[in-house]
Amino acid sequence: MMLSVNKLTVAFAGKAKFAPVLEDLWLELCSGETVALVGESGAGKSVFIEAVLRLLPASCRVTGEIHYQGHNLLALPQSEFRRFLGRELAWVPQSASGALHPMLPIGLQLMEPLLARGMKRQAAWAEIEPLLESLDLKPARQVAQSYPHQLSGGMRQRALVAAALAQKPKVLLVDEPTKGVDTERRQQVIALFQEAKQLQPELSVLVVSHDLDLVEALADRVVVLYAGQLVEATSRKAFFSEPMHPFAKALLAALPKNGLEALPWAESRSVTGCRFHPRCPIALERCQSDEPQVTLHEHTHVRCWLYAS
Ligand code: SF4
To answer: Residue 286 C-alpha to ligand 1 middle, in angstroms?
Structure first.
């Protein structure tokens, strides 16, 4: 097991009390596996990545455990935690423009972590050059000498992936890689991560996305979040062929190929019972008062009274 998350709860400080954004999340990521975390905006997907990378502000309350190779990342002193960052746990953030330093050439930004580890410049370039070439950033030397504004949006995103892979991490955390991109770019992004897996097959990837085409193309397993809670965790095949939770079914029904059936919005975080009940087309009476727990059915974990024994 590369990453194991147990009872992770994240709460932001509100006016009078802490408001949970993620609650009791558990998740496992095996070596070489790709897990997709899906859900609507505000479900807590990106907060999850920020919790793993300890990027949340100090005013946040984070409880639970995030185990990586025997270490609880949340309990490690900052100096020890930093040993894992980049080298073992790498991050591809949402915005390529914001993540790259505008005043430094791409090559230097990619080599910098290797140089900081004491690697000689020539040796660092020998690592970076084939990576740039294999991610279609060619000619590599010319790309390396370019500043971010001289590259297209797609090339900047490739450079970010190259920066993440350059240190040969064991776990790659990817945040909404297709957010705001058109259909053509979307296919390129999907191909980019397929290439990244071919380059490093043992790499474990956790991708946060609302884009189900990307999820279908990349994921081995799918974890569905709703209003900060896990509502379904299953294989990609089961998610796309026989989703169990009504919200998972609604996500799939909203795809253009399935008729674009949009689910009406309703406040969910402050309700009693099942958080999905204000929007659920098949809610039972008890759904309004009793909160369902996650139960296992064959190979699918689901949080819904319909499947409670
Ligand atoms: Fe719908 Fe009830 Fe299941 Fe919630 S517990 S998803 S309201 S059927």
So the answer is: 9
E strands present in the chain? 3-13, 18-29, 34-38, 61-68, 71-72, 89-92, 171-175, 204-209, 221-226, 229-235, 294-297, 300-303
* Sheet containing 61-68: order of strands: 18-29, 3-13, 61-68, 71-72
Angle between helices 121-134 and 183-199 (to 10 degrees): 130
Cα 108 from Cα 113, distance rounded (Å): 9
Judge contact between 114 and 167, C-beta under 8 A: yes
Tokens in use for 153? Answer: 């949006």
The pLDDT tens digits for 225-272 are 999 999 999 999 999 999 999 999 999 999 988 888 888 887 777 889
- Which residues make Cβ contacts (< 8 Å) with residue 111, sequence separation at least 6? 121, 124, 125, 128, 166
Contact indicator for 109, 163 with CB cutoff of 8 Å: yes
306 Cα to the center of ligand 1, angstroms: 7
Distance 112 CA to ligand 1 centre (A): 50
Q: Is the CB of 246 under 6 A from ligand 1?
A: yes
pTM: 0.92
C-beta of 226 in contact with ligand 1 (< 6 A): no
Measured torsion, CA atoms of residues 98, 101, 105, 110, in degrees rounded to the nearest 10 = -90
Would you state the structure tokens that stand for residue 8, as one six-digit string?
């992770």
Cis peptide upstream of residue 93 (ω within 30 degrees of 0): no
